[in-house]
Amino acid sequence: MTTIAPTPLSTQATPALFSLPHCTVIVSGGGRGLGLSVARGCLEAGAHVVGIDLLSLPTEPEWSECQAIAKASGLRLSYHVLDVSNAEAVDVTFAKIFKEAPEHAPIKGMFLAAGVPSSLSVLNSSIEMWRKVFDVNAAGSFLCCKAFAREWLDRNKVDGSPGAGGASIVLTASVAGHVANRQIPCSAYSASKAAVIHMAKSFAAEWGRLGIRVNAISPGYIKTVMTAGIVAARPGYEEAMVNSTLLGRASTGDEYRGPVVFLLSEASSFVIGADIVVDGGHAA
Predict the structure, then answer these.
(1) 16-223+252-278 — its CATH code?
(2) Which residue numbers delimit the Ketoreductase domain (predicted)?
Protein backbone atom coordinates (compact mmCIF):
# COMPACT_ATOMS: atom_id res chain seq x y z
CA MET A 1 0.00 0.00 0.00
CA THR A 2 1.28 3.42 -0.95
CA THR A 3 1.60 5.75 2.00
CA ILE A 4 1.75 9.53 1.94
CA ALA A 5 4.45 11.12 4.05
CA PRO A 6 3.38 13.72 6.60
CA THR A 7 3.27 17.24 5.21
CA PRO A 8 5.05 20.09 7.03
CA LEU A 9 1.78 21.29 8.55
CA SER A 10 0.03 17.96 9.13
CA THR A 11 1.87 17.39 12.39
CA GLN A 12 0.56 20.65 13.87
CA ALA A 13 -2.80 20.95 15.60
CA THR A 14 -5.08 23.48 13.95
CA PRO A 15 -4.88 26.08 16.76
CA ALA A 16 -1.08 26.04 16.40
CA LEU A 17 -1.39 27.05 12.75
CA PHE A 18 -2.87 30.36 13.87
CA SER A 19 -0.13 31.13 16.38
CA LEU A 20 2.96 33.27 15.85
CA PRO A 21 5.68 31.64 17.95
CA HIS A 22 9.39 32.47 17.90
CA CYS A 23 9.03 35.52 15.67
CA THR A 24 8.83 39.30 15.69
CA VAL A 25 6.21 41.28 13.79
CA ILE A 26 6.54 44.91 12.69
CA VAL A 27 3.32 46.95 12.85
CA SER A 28 3.18 50.35 11.16
CA GLY A 29 0.55 52.69 12.52
CA GLY A 30 1.19 50.72 15.69
CA GLY A 31 0.75 53.68 18.00
CA ARG A 32 -3.03 53.82 17.86
CA GLY A 33 -6.26 52.62 16.28
CA LEU A 34 -6.19 49.67 13.90
CA GLY A 35 -2.44 49.17 14.13
CA LEU A 36 -2.42 49.03 17.91
CA SER A 37 -5.39 46.62 17.94
CA VAL A 38 -3.54 44.28 15.59
CA ALA A 39 -0.34 44.67 17.61
CA ARG A 40 -2.29 43.33 20.57
CA GLY A 41 -3.53 40.43 18.47
CA CYS A 42 0.02 39.55 17.45
CA LEU A 43 1.16 39.58 21.08
CA GLU A 44 -1.74 37.36 22.05
CA ALA A 45 -0.74 34.99 19.24
CA GLY A 46 2.76 34.72 20.70
CA ALA A 47 4.79 37.20 18.65
CA HIS A 48 7.17 39.90 19.76
CA VAL A 49 6.01 43.23 18.31
CA VAL A 50 7.75 46.38 17.08
CA GLY A 51 5.39 49.30 16.61
CA ILE A 52 6.26 52.17 14.29
CA ASP A 53 4.24 55.35 13.99
CA LEU A 54 4.50 59.08 13.39
CA LEU A 55 3.16 59.74 16.90
CA SER A 56 5.81 60.75 19.43
CA LEU A 57 4.11 58.46 21.95
CA PRO A 58 1.56 55.67 21.44
CA THR A 59 -1.96 56.20 22.78
CA GLU A 60 -2.96 55.24 26.29
CA PRO A 61 -4.28 53.21 27.99
CA GLU A 62 -4.12 50.81 25.02
CA TRP A 63 -0.32 50.80 24.83
CA SER A 64 0.08 50.03 28.54
CA GLU A 65 -2.46 47.21 28.16
CA CYS A 66 -0.34 45.76 25.36
CA GLN A 67 2.78 46.10 27.49
CA ALA A 68 1.06 44.13 30.25
CA ILE A 69 0.17 41.35 27.78
CA ALA A 70 3.76 41.27 26.53
CA LYS A 71 5.22 41.15 30.03
CA ALA A 72 2.88 38.37 31.15
CA SER A 73 3.88 36.29 28.13
CA GLY A 74 7.61 37.00 28.24
CA LEU A 75 7.46 38.92 24.97
CA ARG A 76 9.09 42.13 23.80
CA LEU A 77 7.05 45.19 22.76
CA SER A 78 8.98 48.18 21.45
CA TYR A 79 8.22 51.41 19.62
CA HIS A 80 9.94 53.60 17.02
CA VAL A 81 8.84 57.01 15.80
CA LEU A 82 8.88 56.92 12.00
CA ASP A 83 7.47 58.83 9.04
CA VAL A 84 6.83 55.99 6.57
CA SER A 85 6.98 58.42 3.64
CA ASN A 86 10.62 59.32 4.44
CA ALA A 87 12.71 56.87 2.41
CA GLU A 88 15.98 57.40 4.27
CA ALA A 89 14.35 57.17 7.70
CA VAL A 90 12.52 53.98 6.71
CA ASP A 91 15.75 52.30 5.57
CA VAL A 92 17.62 53.30 8.74
CA THR A 93 14.79 52.26 11.07
CA PHE A 94 14.21 48.88 9.41
CA ALA A 95 17.92 48.08 9.46
CA LYS A 96 17.92 48.84 13.19
CA ILE A 97 14.77 46.79 13.85
CA PHE A 98 16.12 43.73 12.04
CA LYS A 99 19.49 44.01 13.75
CA GLU A 100 17.95 44.30 17.22
CA ALA A 101 15.40 41.49 16.83
CA PRO A 102 16.00 38.62 19.28
CA GLU A 103 17.99 35.75 17.80
CA HIS A 104 15.31 33.30 18.94
CA ALA A 105 12.54 35.46 17.47
CA PRO A 106 13.66 36.97 14.13
CA ILE A 107 11.50 39.28 12.05
CA LYS A 108 9.00 37.17 10.11
CA GLY A 109 5.98 39.39 9.64
CA MET A 110 4.77 42.92 9.02
CA PHE A 111 1.37 44.58 9.12
CA LEU A 112 1.08 48.03 7.53
CA ALA A 113 -1.71 50.16 8.99
CA ALA A 114 -0.18 53.64 8.70
CA GLY A 115 -2.34 55.83 6.50
CA VAL A 116 -4.07 59.17 6.12
CA PRO A 117 -7.69 59.79 5.11
CA SER A 118 -9.04 62.42 2.75
CA SER A 119 -12.59 63.66 2.41
CA LEU A 120 -12.46 66.31 -0.29
CA SER A 121 -14.15 66.33 -3.64
CA VAL A 122 -11.98 66.31 -6.74
CA LEU A 123 -12.77 69.95 -7.48
CA ASN A 124 -11.79 70.97 -3.96
CA SER A 125 -8.60 68.89 -3.93
CA SER A 126 -5.13 70.26 -4.53
CA ILE A 127 -2.30 68.32 -6.10
CA GLU A 128 -0.40 68.81 -2.83
CA MET A 129 -3.15 67.01 -0.93
CA TRP A 130 -3.21 64.15 -3.46
CA ARG A 131 0.55 63.78 -3.19
CA LYS A 132 0.41 63.72 0.61
CA VAL A 133 -2.21 60.96 0.59
CA PHE A 134 -0.23 58.91 -1.92
CA ASP A 135 3.05 59.61 -0.11
CA VAL A 136 1.76 57.94 3.04
CA ASN A 137 -0.75 55.37 1.82
CA ALA A 138 0.97 54.13 -1.33
CA ALA A 139 4.60 55.28 -1.24
CA GLY A 140 4.82 54.57 2.50
CA SER A 141 3.64 51.01 1.92
CA PHE A 142 6.14 50.64 -0.93
CA LEU A 143 9.05 51.93 1.16
CA CYS A 144 8.25 49.69 4.14
CA CYS A 145 7.79 46.61 1.95
CA LYS A 146 11.02 47.30 0.09
CA ALA A 147 12.99 47.82 3.30
CA PHE A 148 11.48 44.71 4.89
CA ALA A 149 12.19 42.53 1.84
CA ARG A 150 15.77 43.78 1.51
CA GLU A 151 16.58 43.11 5.17
CA TRP A 152 14.76 39.76 5.29
CA LEU A 153 16.18 38.38 2.04
CA ASP A 154 19.70 39.31 3.15
CA ARG A 155 19.21 37.04 6.16
CA ASN A 156 17.07 34.22 4.77
CA LYS A 157 17.31 31.84 1.82
CA VAL A 158 14.11 29.79 1.76
CA ASP A 159 11.40 29.00 -0.75
CA GLY A 160 7.66 29.44 -0.35
CA SER A 161 7.00 25.99 1.11
CA PRO A 162 4.83 25.72 4.24
CA GLY A 163 6.84 25.41 7.41
CA ALA A 164 10.03 26.48 5.63
CA GLY A 165 10.49 29.59 7.72
CA GLY A 166 9.14 32.19 5.31
CA ALA A 167 7.82 35.67 6.04
CA SER A 168 4.44 37.34 5.59
CA ILE A 169 3.52 40.94 4.83
CA VAL A 170 -0.03 42.24 5.19
CA LEU A 171 -0.92 45.62 3.69
CA THR A 172 -3.98 47.66 4.61
CA ALA A 173 -6.04 48.62 1.58
CA SER A 174 -9.74 49.56 1.86
CA VAL A 175 -13.17 48.70 0.53
CA ALA A 176 -12.89 52.18 -1.01
CA GLY A 177 -10.18 50.71 -3.25
CA HIS A 178 -12.81 48.34 -4.68
CA VAL A 179 -15.93 50.49 -5.02
CA ALA A 180 -16.64 54.21 -5.22
CA ASN A 181 -17.55 55.69 -1.85
CA ARG A 182 -20.98 57.19 -2.45
CA GLN A 183 -21.27 58.36 1.16
CA ILE A 184 -18.35 60.79 1.07
CA PRO A 185 -15.99 62.16 -1.61
CA CYS A 186 -12.58 60.57 -1.10
CA SER A 187 -11.10 59.96 -4.53
CA ALA A 188 -7.48 60.49 -3.44
CA TYR A 189 -7.82 58.00 -0.60
CA SER A 190 -9.69 55.49 -2.77
CA ALA A 191 -7.14 55.70 -5.57
CA SER A 192 -4.25 55.26 -3.13
CA LYS A 193 -5.88 52.17 -1.63
CA ALA A 194 -6.58 50.70 -5.07
CA ALA A 195 -2.85 51.07 -5.66
CA VAL A 196 -2.15 49.19 -2.42
CA ILE A 197 -4.34 46.28 -3.54
CA HIS A 198 -2.31 45.85 -6.71
CA MET A 199 0.96 46.40 -4.88
CA ALA A 200 0.15 43.34 -2.76
CA LYS A 201 -0.29 41.27 -5.92
CA SER A 202 2.82 42.65 -7.64
CA PHE A 203 5.10 42.31 -4.61
CA ALA A 204 3.79 38.77 -4.07
CA ALA A 205 4.74 37.92 -7.65
CA GLU A 206 8.30 39.13 -7.05
CA TRP A 207 8.94 37.58 -3.63
CA GLY A 208 6.63 34.56 -3.29
CA ARG A 209 9.15 31.98 -4.47
CA LEU A 210 11.81 33.60 -2.31
CA GLY A 211 9.79 32.96 0.83
CA ILE A 212 7.82 36.17 1.39
CA ARG A 213 4.04 36.05 1.07
CA VAL A 214 2.32 39.40 0.51
CA ASN A 215 -1.42 39.94 0.97
CA ALA A 216 -3.80 42.75 1.83
CA ILE A 217 -6.95 43.34 3.81
CA SER A 218 -9.62 45.82 2.75
CA PRO A 219 -11.42 47.15 5.82
CA GLY A 220 -14.79 48.81 5.74
CA TYR A 221 -15.79 51.68 8.01
CA ILE A 222 -13.90 51.46 11.33
CA LYS A 223 -14.69 53.55 14.39
CA THR A 224 -11.35 55.11 15.33
CA VAL A 225 -10.04 58.43 16.61
CA MET A 226 -8.94 59.24 13.04
CA THR A 227 -12.40 58.63 11.52
CA ALA A 228 -14.10 60.50 14.35
CA GLY A 229 -12.96 63.82 12.88
CA ILE A 230 -14.50 63.02 9.50
CA VAL A 231 -17.75 61.93 11.14
CA ALA A 232 -17.95 65.10 13.22
CA ALA A 233 -17.43 67.31 10.18
CA ARG A 234 -20.07 65.56 8.08
CA PRO A 235 -23.45 65.04 9.75
CA GLY A 236 -25.21 61.97 8.42
CA TYR A 237 -22.03 60.32 7.13
CA GLU A 238 -21.79 57.68 9.83
CA GLU A 239 -25.44 56.76 9.45
CA ALA A 240 -25.02 56.44 5.69
CA MET A 241 -21.95 54.22 6.10
CA VAL A 242 -23.68 52.01 8.65
CA ASN A 243 -26.75 51.66 6.47
CA SER A 244 -24.58 50.62 3.52
CA THR A 245 -23.38 47.48 5.33
CA LEU A 246 -25.22 44.18 5.48
CA LEU A 247 -24.61 44.04 9.24
CA GLY A 248 -26.01 47.51 9.81
CA ARG A 249 -23.09 48.71 11.92
CA ALA A 250 -19.53 50.01 11.87
CA SER A 251 -16.55 47.84 12.75
CA THR A 252 -13.97 48.17 15.51
CA GLY A 253 -10.23 47.70 15.23
CA ASP A 254 -10.44 44.47 17.20
CA GLU A 255 -12.41 42.83 14.39
CA TYR A 256 -9.29 42.86 12.22
CA ARG A 257 -7.05 40.99 14.64
CA GLY A 258 -8.30 37.64 13.38
CA PRO A 259 -7.92 38.26 9.62
CA VAL A 260 -4.45 39.77 10.04
CA VAL A 261 -3.13 37.08 12.39
CA PHE A 262 -4.50 34.51 9.92
CA LEU A 263 -2.53 36.10 7.07
CA LEU A 264 0.63 36.39 9.16
CA SER A 265 0.47 32.79 10.36
CA GLU A 266 1.03 29.38 8.78
CA ALA A 267 -2.75 28.96 8.66
CA SER A 268 -2.61 30.99 5.43
CA SER A 269 0.48 29.27 3.98
CA PHE A 270 -1.13 28.94 0.51
CA VAL A 271 -2.65 32.45 0.50
CA ILE A 272 -0.60 34.93 -1.51
CA GLY A 273 -1.37 37.96 -3.64
CA ALA A 274 -4.85 38.05 -2.14
CA ASP A 275 -6.98 40.85 -0.77
CA ILE A 276 -9.43 39.92 1.97
CA VAL A 277 -12.41 42.27 2.09
CA VAL A 278 -13.53 42.79 5.70
CA ASP A 279 -16.26 45.38 5.24
CA GLY A 280 -19.44 44.09 6.85
CA GLY A 281 -20.86 43.52 3.40
CA HIS A 282 -20.50 47.10 2.18
CA ALA A 283 -19.32 45.97 -1.27
CA ALA A 284 -21.56 42.90 -1.52
Answers:
(1) 3.40.50.720
(2) 23-220
Q: Which residue from 209, 156, 165 is spatially nearest to 22, judged by alpha carbons?
A: 165
Tell me which residues of the chain have a pLDDT lower than 50.
Answer: none
Asked about 108 being catalytic, the answer comes back as: no
Of 79, 193, 221, 256, which residue is the catalytic one? Answer: 193
Residue pLDDT, tens place only, 42-69: 999 999 999 999 999 999 999 999 999 9
Active-site residue (options: 79, 96, 99, 189)? 189
- Domain extents for the chain? 16-223+252-278
Is there a catalytic annotation at residue 223?
A: no
pLDDT score recorded for residue 55: 96
d(CA 204, CA 212): 7
Phi/psi of residue 217, nearest 5 degrees: -120, 150
Sheet containing strand 48-53, edge to edge, reads: 77-81, 48-53, 24-28, 107-112, 167-172, 212-219, 275-278
Q: What is the pLDDT of residues 18-36, one digit of tens each?
A: 999 999 999 999 999 999 9
Q: How far is CA 175 from the centre of its chain?
A: 14
Gap between the Cα atoms of 55 and 272, Å rounded: 31
Classify each residue of 226-263 as buried b or exposed e, where b means 16 or more C-beta atoms within 10 Å of its C-beta.
ebeebbeeeeebbeebbebbeeeebbebebbbebbbbb
Residues in the chain: 284
Residue type (1 letter), 130: W
